[in-house]
Write a structure and sequence with these properties.
21% of the residues lie in helices and 29% in strands. By secondary structure, it is α+β, with helices and mostly antiparallel strands. Helix 2 crosses helix 7 and helix 4 packs antiparallel against helix 7. InterPro entries: EDR1/CTR1/ARMC3-like_pept-like (IPR055164), Galactose-bd-like_sf (IPR008979). This is EDR1/CTR1/ARMC3-like peptidase-like domain-containing protein.
Length: 375
């Protein structure tokens, strides 16, 4: 069977003595077609309380993201309005979500693609504004500047305060503003996640996962007959594991935890689905490779996101445990070690013989600084 690889250049740095916590991301508002919003695009002002939880938006239109017009991947078309070639300046959006325990979130992660500018409100209080002028925003206020390709096509990520979250019912309200009356398009798609940290000291690999963790850390290889157990940690080639199983690394520590990683659970369910198992081995491997690429490739493409992803995770989550399935939520993309690990897990689930290999194995110069999967 042909060799299947998912590769990217990686680099590692070692820092000693850093506090360690498990990073978790919980989706509060999904992105794209899984979302449910109310929106007002009739050109009339919505009223003073439109940002607040008690506002009645039952007469507004309903739809799922992405919203807008003039773009290829719109799910719900927003009426341009305005007349005589001019477009409506502002469109209003509202959605609701529930939170059981707001105190568990240290901050919020807003992932958004907007054209041209917006102001976001959480339960009536301004949470974030982007590409908008300072001061009071009026219904006829234009965005600070025009957005055009390729910048208008990028999803951006903002870490925001979680102080405005309420126990139970919450409302996120958005006013989306055009850059000018002759704008040819409009776009809004976003997701909101709550980020929590489970306090702890240095991460400890559980007894049942130490053998495989140490094997990969030293030999840079996990064979096709070895399944990766829950509790497995990978912190890159410079990760250190002491005799008791405590781990430290200058990069994020990828954690395999099928029980608590909802995103990983969905990936593995796909890998063992009846539709997958009916395929021959090559087609199964090809499907998984395409699936993994889709999961870990940002909207602007792989090469544009690799360096940013590595630096972002190393800077913010050095020596901290991150669930493998949460990596795209936290930074929007993934590099070779994320891709190769997910491929190995999915291949095992799909009944394929797959070996996880790190470049240190020295198979050839091309794999010298990457993680790959061999079939």
């Amino acid at each position: 069977m042909p060799k299947m690889m998912v590769m990217a250049t990686i680099c590692c740095f070692l820092f000693i003595g850093l506090p360690v916590q498990l990073i978790r991301a919980e989706i509060l508002i999904p992105r794209g077609k899984e979302s449910r919003w109310s929106f007002k695009d009739d050109g009339k002002e919505p009223g003073a309380n439109w940002k607040k939880p008690g506002f009645d938006d039952s007469q507004w239109r309903r739809g799922a993201g992405p919203f807008g017009f003039g773009e290829a991947d719109i799910a719900t078309v927003v009426r341009p309005g305005g007349g005589e070639g001019a477009v409506r300046t502002t469109t209003y959006f509202r959605t609701t979500f529930d939170v059981c325990s707001p105190a568990v979130f240290t901050h919020l992660l807003l992932t958004v693609r907007a054209d041209d500018g917006y102001v976001a409100y959480l339960n009536g209080t301004e949470l974030h504004r982007w590409n908008m002028p300072q001061g009071k925003v009026m219904p006829d206020s234009y965005a600070a500047e025009w957005r055009s390709a390729p910048l208008e096509e990028l999803y951006q990520r903002f870490f925001l305060t979680s102080e405005g979250l309420a126990r139970g019912h919450n409302v996120l309200a958005i006013e989306l503003h055009q850059g000018g009356k002759e704008s040819s398009d409009l776009y809004l798609d976003l997701a909101l996640a709550g980020i929590s940290k489970d306090a702890g000291g240095r991460p400890l690999v559980p007894a049942g996962a130490r053998e495989v963790t140490r094997l990969f850390n030293k030999a840079h290889y996990i064979g096709p007959n070895t399944q990766i157990p829950d509790g497995f940690l990978d912190g890159g080639r410079s990760m250190q594991v002491d005799e008791f199983g405590y781990v430290i690394s200058g990069r994020e520590l990828l954690l395999v935890d099928r029980r608590n990683d909802g995103q990983l659970t969905e990936h593995l369910r796909y890998a063992r689905s009846q539709g997958m198992l009916k395929l021959n081995e090559l087609d199964r491997a090809t499907r998984i490779a395409r699936y993994v690429d889709q999961v870990f490739t940002a909207s602007e493409g792989r090469s544009a996101s690799e360096y940013r992803t590595r630096q972002y995770l190393a800077d913010r989550y050095s020596s901290q445990e991150v669930l493998l399935g949460d990596v795209p939520l936290l930074c929007g993309a993934g590099v070779c070690r994320h891709r190769a690990l997910l491929f190995k897990l999915m291949a095992d689930e799909a009944g394929l013989n797959a070996a996880l290999v790190r470049g240190n194995l020295g198979i050839d110069e091309a794999t010298a600084r990457g993680a790959v999967v061999f079939m």
